[in-house]
Amino acid sequence: MKKSGFSRRNALELIGGGVVTALLAGTFATSAQADAKLLAEAIKKAVGDGAMKEGKITLDLPEIAENGNTVPVGVSVDSPMTDADYVKSVHLFAEKNPAADVASIHFTPASGVAKAALRIRMAGTQNIVAVAEMSDGTLYTAEKLVKVTIGGCGG
Amino acid sequence: MASKPRVRVPKKAKAGDIITIKSLISHKMETGQRKDKKTGEKIPRLIINKFVCKFNGKVVFSSDWHPAVSANPYMAFSYKVVESGEFEFAWTDDAGETVSKKAKLTVS
Amino acid sequence: MKRKALVLAGIGAVALAVPSVMTFAAEDWGKYQVGDTRSGYTFAKTETRAIQDDDFENPGMLWVEHGEELWETVDGEAQKSCKSCHADASDTMKTVGSTYPVVAKDIGKLENVENRINRCRTDNMKAKPWKYDSRNMLGMVSYVKRQSYGQPMNVKIDGDAASWFKKGEEFYNQRRGQLDMACKHCHVDNAGNMIRANTLSQGQGNGFPTYRLKWQKPGSLHRRFRGCNKQVRAKPYKTGSDEYLALELYVMYRGQGLPVETPAVRN
Questions:
Q1: Interchain pair A152, C197: CB under 8 A
Q2: Is the four-CA dihedral C72, C145, C267, B24 of positive or negative sign?
Q3: What is the radius of gyration, based on Cα positions, of chain A?
Q4: Cα–Cα distance measured from residue A117 to residue A71, given in angstroms and rounded to the nearest whole number
Q5: Is B63 a residue whose pLDDT tops 50?
Q6: Fewer beta carbons within 10 angstroms: which end of chain A, N or C?
Q7: Using one digit for the tens of pLDDT, what is the confidence trace for B12-27?
Q8: Rounded CA gap, C62 and B30, in Å?
Q9: Cβ–Cβ < 8 Å for C33, C42
Q10: Residue stretches of chain C with pLDDT short of 70
Q11: Given phi > 0 = left and psi -120 to 50 = alpha, else beta, which region is B14?
């Protein structure tokens, strides 16, 4: 069947493979850039382009999602939740979904604690990003990676 | 909207308690991304995009939802008990239709 | 040659799969395990089990509620509701979920809950039959089976049911489709192993209609059978068909002793 040694066919395969790999790498790079851009735009639309600090937010998400259709998420923000100092909103984003916006959660001092839970759709493995907007305008951010897999059979 | 909502609110609580309120409603949350298998056309988006919780007429919690919220949307949140009264929960969809549900709270 | 390669690839992929967890050894699954028989609950992730465990949070319960409303709704020319004849479901439907499908003597064949409901609707209520996985049918079946919630599965496979059971057993072990696989290859030989990123369960039926995260709504056991058959590139049978009725009896018997979990929540 196949001759031993490095044939012309092997050479063509190498070159062809190299071209394909280069093209793919280019495609992935562009697509990652596109995702990052969409995410940045979505965040800017929600909270403006002020500086975002780390901390205060706890994101509760599974490491591996059972199914990308329904991923339980819990979010809580450390805050006294008084009239003078409370969490106004938490905005959730999925960096690689067709659209980055997931939900905006609006608390009031009547909430007692800034804590909420919901179920979201994730199109694939990606970070879920949370941005918390405090009553004084300060912004905090946190993110967590969730693995979303292709099912084996009918899944 | 032929959606069925359900809410879980403790019937009784003490002033100062922080209670957890849970809500669930049946809804497809059609994203607008799916294609009709027969025609190949995109099925138009139709989701619940707003959830509002009022207590004695005042908004205490709300949320804006996008197509990334799962079908049959679930939402749980907290509330600090002050006085007896009535919650009103409202879910509004892209077509502007609203489904609502009420629940009473008695404070001891 | 190509077909054989496909077949070998298919079986090889499953057989070479890495065992996902130390299965039968460590965990005590309580009522969800009877001997070597394990509910799909035990193969699901923690978050998924949590959704099923909470009656409020379980989306399948929205359909149980719908069924409860339908139970009292008059429908059909005879101007009856289910309640007219069957009164309180928690009493009259108590063992349906744990014993069906059963052989109905008056029609001389095996009948599952879906078919029984439609027979009641057409013959007694003079109402239109419901489509198999319609919202109304899923609601009513979920509501009826829910009345047996927690009871151990206890289907009869002797007497009139024996020939149906035998057919179901044959179906279960029969290779089919382009991938030339039988139910047992996944659900007996490889339960607990991974198929791509999913863990194969034993394919039990005690939780149906099941709220599958993939479907984002509940679905019938026969719908699942169709999906499984399509996945091995076999032409599926119709929901409510004799083939699937026989298979249903066999599948329910495989789960004998497991609690009725309707509505279960699975991937």
A1: yes
A2: positive
A3: 22
A4: 11
A5: yes
A6: N
A7: 899 999 999 999 999 9
A8: 18
A9: yes
A10: 1-26
A11: beta
Could you tell me which residues come within 8 angstroms of residue B79 by beta carbon, excluding any fewer than 6 positions away?
A: A110, A111, A112, B18, B19, B21, B53, B55, B60, B61
Mean pLDDT of the B82-107 span: 96
- Rounded to two decimals, what is the model's pTM? 0.87
CB C71 within 8 A of CB C89: yes
Query: Phi, psi at residue B38, to the nearest 5°?
Result: -85, -45
Average pLDDT, chain C: 92
Of B70, B8, C130, residue with least CA distance to A94: B70
For residue A18, the SS3 value is helix
The span from the CA of A36 to the CA of A56, in Å, is 23
Residue B2 is predicted with a pLDDT of 72
- Mark yes or no for CB contact A155/C50 under 8 Å: no
**Given CB atoms, is C196 within the 8 Å cutoff of chain A?**
yes
Measure Cα distances from B80 to A74, B56, B89 in Å. Answer: 19, 14, 16
Residue whose C-alpha is closest to residue C110's, from C62, C54, C157: C157
C56 inside 8 A of chain B by CB: yes
pLDDT in tens, C182-193: 999 999 999 999
- In this prediction, residue C93 carries a pLDDT of 97
CA–CA distances in Å: residue C130 to residues B2, C93, C133, C255: 18, 19, 8, 28
Chain A hits for B62, CB-CB cut-off 8 Å, are 106
pLDDT in tens, chain A (155 residues): 444 556 666 666 666 555 555 555 555 556 777 788 899 999 999 999 899 999 999 999 999 998 999 999 999 999 999 999 999 999 999 999 999 999 999 999 999 999 999 999 999 999 999 999 999 999 999 999 999 987 777 54
Chain A contact partners (≥3 CB pairs within 8 A): B, C
Active site residue C228: yes
**Cβ of residue C217 closer than 8 Å to a chain B Cβ:** yes
Chains A, B: CB contacts within 8 A come to 87
Which residue type occupies C194? M
Q: Which amino acid, one-letter code, is at C81?
A: S
The ipTM (two decimal places) reads 0.95
C191 vs C19: CA distance, rounded Å: 9
